[in-house]
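Lab notebook: predicted structure, single chain.

Context: the supervisor wants predicted structures on file for every construct in the current expression panel, including those that have not yet been purified. This is the next one on the list. No modifications to the sequence; it matches the entry in the shared construct table.
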Amino acid sequence: MNFEFSEEQQQLQDTVDRYLTDRYSFEKFRAINASPSGWDKAAWAGLAELGVLALNVPVAQGGLGFGPLETLSVMGACGRSLLLEPFLSSAVIATALLRAFADDAAAAELLTRMAAGDAITVLAHYEPDSRYETQWVRTRAQKSGGSYQLDGHKAVVLHAGAADTLLISARTSGEPSDAKGISLFRVPRDAKGLSLDQYPTIDGRRAADIYLEGVQVPESSRLGVEGGALPAIDAALDIGLGALCAEAVGVMQALVDATVAYVQSRQQFGTGDRAFPSPAASHRGYADSFGAGPLHELSGCPALRRSKCHRAPACAVGRQGSRRPVMPLRRSTSRAIAWRHGHDR
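Prediction complete. Output recorded below exactly as produced.
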């Protein structure tokens, strides 16, 4: 199998990499990380101007209509710059999810605004006791006339505080563990009865627990058929999982490059380390310890193509023996990464 990027995909990665190298220095990362919001609107506008927010948006909605491999290439560049903005949560996961409902006029309009950088949308699906089992949904949506009432609790929703719109999954029928009966709703972040408990995650991004208490939404806010949203949610999360792997590989590449540069310039006993030959201190030694070049870098590619990341080796046995992903932990430059979930908080 050929794991090399095409010329166009490599050009896309190089363009985004150069842009972030010039505009998103480590000093800027630290300043954004220390800010109350944890993300920068100017940086987001720059990404929109560059066109990467339209990467996964269909052409009919003003996007570029690209797919998983282009997403993979851009996420590697995001990893190398430690991008804090909601690219993964909005431009990848939420966009992939809305794309499944692009025939819906409201979803299509939202995709158009997202492509231009005028709207941020994130998925709120996991719950405190779900343990990454995507079918485990306790949040309820009770239909009454031409509206639904939403009640429940969503956990660790990335960039919920930055979002204009939340895509909230809720059960319209069945028991918490049933795969059927899960619906998806577009809910404004400032909807009455919706509250956010915001906090920073270990890797520096922002997340929130979302509490829904009698939130009223019109029937038109439901995406797709009632009770049939889980397959689209699973597919979007799988794409996000592959993208997260690509971002982590970008971080690892940055670490390797920084280590090699340090070894080449380090002074020991008044001379450089290169005066003391050692496989471990050579560029080849570090590259070999990192992985097998393009093959390692594109290890997430099959998962993105198949959208079946829950079948990958990084999984755990959950309720009733089902295998679900243990979310790979995001990035580490001088930080260990943890994706906190539910009671682990």
